[in-house]
Amino acid sequence: MSWNAVISRGATGAPVAPEAGGSGPRIGVITFPGTLDDIDAARAVSYADAAPVALWHADEDLQGVDAVVVPGGFSYGDYLRAGAIAARAPIMRSVIEAARAGMPVLGICNGFQVLCEAGLLPGALIRNASLRFICRDQWLRVENTDTAWTSRFEPGAEILVPMKNAEGCFVAADPVLDELEGEGRVLFRYVGDGPTQGNPNGAMQDIAGICSPDGRIAGLMPHPEHAIDPLTGPTDDGLGLFLSVRDLIGAAGSVGAGV
C-alpha cells in the first residue's frame, strides 16, 4: 500500500479515513485544527506494521482502535494555553474514557500538552527557559522500559530524535516530581554533552517524557515519529515506541479496544 493510500486530506482539510482491510493492530491518530504531525505519526504506525486510523477532533467515535496517538502541532493555535482547547474536544472525551479503561495513549509534543491539560498525565508544559522556539536533534536516555511504549528499548539506552517546541519545559509540584521519580514514571530524560545538548528548555529534573502509573499513557516533548528511518531522520530510534505498543496490542489486545 502506498503512503498516500494510508492517510490523506480531503477538501476541508480533515483526514480521509484509511482504506479498510489494513493488517495488524489499529492505532488511531488524531487531527485537530492546527495539527502538523498527524501524517508523520500515521507513517510511523505503518512502519511498525500496524494500521493507522484517522480520527477527527469533532467526532467521538474511536472506530474500534487498539491505541491512540495524539500528535504534535499547534492545536487550535495554542490559544489560552498549548493543548487547553484540544483537551476539551469531542474526540478527547472518548480518549479519556478509553485511556482510563486501559487503552494505550501516546502524546507527542503538543499531544503531551493535551494529555496534561486533559488530566491524563500530571504536571504542565510551559514556555522554554530561553523564551525561544527550539528545533534540533536531541539525545534522550530511556529511563523505564517496562511500559506499553518503551518495551523495545534497552534500559539506559540513549536515543537521538528531533525536537521542536516553544512550550516544552516540564514543571510539576515537588510532591508530583517525587512521585514520578519514586514510581519510575519518568520515561525519557534529556542528556548529552556540548552547547547544543543536555536540557534544552529548563525542564525540571531534565524530564523529557513521563507515563501513567500503569505505563499505558505516555507523553514526551521530542518527536519519535520523525526518527523512524535514517533516510529522513537522524536515526530510526523513535520507531521503538511504535514497535513497543504494537507488540503489546498485537499479542494481547488493548483493554480499551473497540470503544
Q: How would you describe this protein?
A:
There is one protein chain. With 259 residues, the protein is of the alpha/beta class. The chain has a single domain, classed as Rossmann fold, CATH 3.40.50. The chain has helices spanning 3-6, 38-47, 90-100, 110-117, 174-182, 239-252; strands at residues 8-9, 15-16, 26-31, 51-56, 67-70, 105-108, 124-126, 134-142, 158-165, 169-171, 186-190, 207-211, 217-220. It is globular. It starts with a helix and ends in a 7-residue tail after the last helix. Mean pLDDT is 89; it is low at 1-12, 16-22 and 254-259.
Based on the model shown, name its key terms.
disordered C terminus; 22% helix; two-stranded antiparallel ribbon; Rossmann fold; 24% strand; 6 helices; alpha/beta; 259 residues; 9-stranded mixed sheet; disordered N terminus
Give a brief description.
With 259 residues, the protein is α/β, with parallel strands linked by helices. The chain contains six helices and 13 strands.
Per-chain topology:
Layout: H1 3-6, E1 8-9, E2 15-16, E3 26-31, H2 38-47, E4 51-56, E5 67-70, H3 90-100, E6 105-108, H4 110-117, E7 124-126, E8 134-142, E9 158-165, E10 169-171, H5 174-182, E11 186-190, E12 207-211, E13 217-220, H6 239-252
Parallel strand pairs: 3-4, 3-5, 5-6, 6-13
Antiparallel strand pairs: 1-2, 7-10, 8-9, 8-11, 11-12, 12-13
